[in-house]
Design goal:
about 290 residues; Immunoglobulin-like; 4-stranded antiparallel beta sheet; 19 strands; about 25% helix
Length: about 290
């Protein structure tokens, strides 16, 4: 009787909240490699990590749990989920979470949502730069992505950069297009850019990527590199001045020594003071020793 009463009491206490969530646990991070915008038939790896050790991970797609087999090859606090031969049906919102092995009823908060897009469902957009030719560091660059005119619905746009696993920017369309702003560009912004448009809700269809647009950023006169050179020049000047001072002191000491030795030699040859200088020189030598 008592055991049954305690079980009912415990169930009643837990009914008002989710006992599996512990908001004090660190939120895991989720990443996609090589990117989370990929063409059909490619492969992608979803990676979930946390600083907590001795945990088990769960990946979810649109809140539905995915099967994952723990691998002994992965370091503690890390798990991977592999998707091969991607199809449009693989697109969606992915998250991950973990639970502590010793307390399987305690689960972490979910990671941020990772939106996986599989391109190729819609015609490709066009990408243009408002600024033509080479761009100078510090300038603002505007890239305009425009969907085809026969696509009447409004979509989300993503700006992509070759070699980067996540989109540079995500924006809603203004009519049939959107402008991506790259403020105060630097040499790091040099690269090949493209854009896609996609459905922000299921089934998350995405267009083919636009043709690539190359952005080349040149150093501006008097920029960071000049300041760096000036700093090196100042350091070089300091070193040169120090060397000059040391050389001057050495030259003065050498002149004094030559003059002193010359005077001693002259006294020894033409004056009876030679004995006195010999005595002083001997005393000086003993003092130095």
């Amino acid at each position: 009787m008592l055991a049954g009463f305690l079980s009912l009491l415990l169930f009643g206490l837990c009914a008002g909240h989710d006992p599996r969530r512990d908001e004090s646990l660190p939120r895991p991070s989720i990443q996609a490699w090589p990117s989370w915008v990929l063409p059909a038939n490619s492969d992608v790896t979803l990676r979930c990590s946390t600083p907590i050790r001795e945990v088990r991970f769960t990946f979810r797609k649109n809140n539905d749990a995915l099967e994952i087999s723990p691998s002994p090859d992965y370091p503690e606090g890390l798990a991977e989920f592999h998707l091969t031969d991607l199809k449009s049906s693989d697109a969606g919102e992915y998250t991950c979470e973990y639970y502590i092995i010793e307390s399987p009823t305690i689960r972490s908060p979910p990671s941020d949502v990772l939106l996986l897009l599989v391109t190729g469902n819609f015609p490709k957009p066009s990408l243009h730069a408002h600024h033509r030719g080479e761009v100078t560091a510090g300038e603002n660059v505007i890239l305009q992505c425009q969907q085809p005119r026969n696509m009447m619905n409004s979509y989300m746009f993503a700006l992509l950069k070759k070699g980067t696993s996540t989109p540079i920017k995500l924006q809603h369309a203004i009519g049939m297009e959107t402008d991506f702003s790259l403020p105060s560009v630097t040499g790091r912004d040099t690269g090949d850019y493209s854009c896609v448009y996609f459905q922000p809700r299921a089934p998350f269809w995405a267009s083919q990527p636009s043709d690539q647009l190359t952005i080349s950023v040149a150093d501006s006169p008097g920029a960071t590199s000049t300041d760096y050179t000036s700093g090196n020049r100042a350091k070089s000047t300091d070193y040169t001045m120090g060397n000059i001072i040391r050389l001057c002191l050495s030259a003065v000491i050498m002149v004094l020594m030559v003059a002193f030795l010359l005077e001693v030699w002259c006294c020894q040859k033409w004056s009876p003071c030679g004995s006195r200088y010999n005595t002083e020189l001997s005393s000086l030598s003993h003092g130095l020793l």
